[in-house]
Design brief:
0% strand, 83% helix, 441 residues, mainly alpha
Length: 441
């Protein structure tokens, strides 16, 4: 729970981080300290209060830190991706799927809390119970859809020797289930904590659920890939899991429970579209696998780079979703001043986050003995590429949420999946394009 001293502690911690980075880059420490104070002071003001600022900054810092852990794992298993062509194509979408399903889950719970309709009950007929069931149905069925999409796109784009679709389905479903259960548990804890301690779920849900999706999905997929050492078991398992997943989708689609049926029917099309976009991010990285294998510290940076943009866009989408439900803002082609204020908040928060990503990725790479292009190059790539990735995330967040309201669907269900999937692809392109522009790769 945040205390009244948290903002001051955050100011001190942020200033120290920026001073340390400035020294490493041989920049004047005084300028870095002044910039840190101005940045964090603006963030506190724009967020609407010190407690809210603390919640968002802590959640984003945790998101970046754990995403770097995911990147370290990703960089250490490049041999698995080289042995299983096509698997890396699926990774960004698999990571995004966890965030999309459970961030939307958290958004729906947050709206119910804000509107006073939430009840902390997991009974089958309750709003929370139906949302849990819908999330589990979507996890299984979308994992199969993701594997099929990854195989189709990899073949279409000419990636040689891709593994079979049954193999990808087995890895996707088993890995997805292993990663999703802890994320679901964490989402329930966040919901309970928001009720008990008065947290604003809009400010912490997207960063923390995407954090867990990042850090758990990659190891879970790797563990699932170990089943391939038993050919008969893997083939039988893959076919059985496909059947179970299709049955789960059919059950949710035809359910007599209104919330469960609505969430499954509204979520399925957008999650498939999101998976297709995120898979393109995997293709982008797969085509540069030789570069990332040569400089693995860049692979450490990649998940944090993309995840931070998605989390920042998710914060804006969640805040807008709640405000639309409460009638505080309206759907307009040109954003209202209150929306611009929220967007400015996200942009301000992005600066220290992307600096942390760069410094963290470089240090993690050094600790693991992985080659890096250098701290200065990492900071330049992260800050420049991150600016464009976050700016794109803000635009998509506003218009995706606005379009959802305009056509009469739930912005809590549609907003974050559109943002994160779009950012998965454009974030990968922004990172690689910036690296190329700076002649790092």
């Amino acid at each position: 729970m945040a205390t009244s001293t948290d903002p001051d502690r955050l100011l001190v911690a942020g200033a120290k981080l920026l001073i340390g980075s400035a020294r490493l880059l041989r920049r004047p420490a005084g300028l870095a300290l002044a910039w840190a104070r101005r940045t964090l002071a603006r963030a506190r003001g724009l967020l609407g209060g010190a407690d809210t600022a603390s919640q968002s900054l802590i959640a984003l810092a945790l998101n970046s830190t754990t995403s770097l852990v995911a990147g370290a794992v990703l960089g250490s298993i490049t041999g698995t991706f080289e042995a299983l062509p096509g698997l890396l194509v699926m990774v960004p979408a698999a990571i995004g799927l966890r965030g999309n399903i459970f961030s939307a889950f958290g958004n729906r719970i947050s709206t119910a809390i804000h509107t006073g309709t939430f009840e902390l009950s997991a009974k089958r007929e309750s709003m929370l119970g139906q949302n849990i069931a819908a999330s589990l149905c979507l996890t299984l069925s979308m994992s199969v859809a993701l594997a099929v999409l990854a195989k189709a796109i990899a073949v279409f784009l000419g990636i040689p020797g891709t593994v079979s679709v049954v193999t990808l389905c087995m890895i996707s479903v088993v890995g997805g289930a292993l990663a999703s259960l802890p994320v679901l548990f964490a989402a329930l804890l966040l919901a309970a904590g928001s009720v008990r301690y008065g947290w604003d779920l809009d400010n912490v849900n997207a960063p923390l659920t995407s954090t867990l999706g990042d850090v758990l999905t990659i190891p879970a997929l790797w563990i699932a890939s170990l089943l391939l050492t038993i050919p008969v078991v893997s083939a039988v398992t893959g076919v059985a899991l496909i059947a179970v997943s299709v049955a789960a989708l059919a059950a949710g689609w035809q359910s007599r429970l209104g919330v469960l049926r609505r969430v499954v029917r509204e979520s399925t099309p957008i999650l498939i579209a999101a998976a297709a976009l995120s898979t393109l991010a995997g293709v982008t990285i797969e085509h540069r696998l030789d570069t990332f294998a040569r400089l693995p510290a860049l692979l450490v940076l990649a998940p944090a780079f993309v995840s931070s943009a998605g989390a920042l866009g998710g914060i804006l989408s969640a805040r807008l979703g709640s405000k639309f439900h409460l009638g505080m803002v309206s759907a307009r082609p040109v954003p209202e001043p209150d929306v611009v204020r929220d967007a400015a908040l996200v942009m301000v928060l992005g600066a220290p986050v992307y600096l942390l990503n760069a410094v963290g990725a470089h240090l993690v790479g050094r600790l693991l003995g992985q080659a890096s292009p250098g701290l200065g190059a990492m900071v330049a790539a992260s800050m420049i590429g991150g600016f464009f990735a976050v700016l794109f995330a803000l635009v998509v967040a506003y218009y995706a949420t606005t379009a959802s309201v305009a056509v009469g669907v739930d912005p809590d269900t549609y907003g974050i999946p559109i943002v994160t999937s779009a950012v998965d692809f454009t974030g990968a392109v922004a990172l690689i394009g910036t690296l190329a522009g700076l002649r790092i790769v």
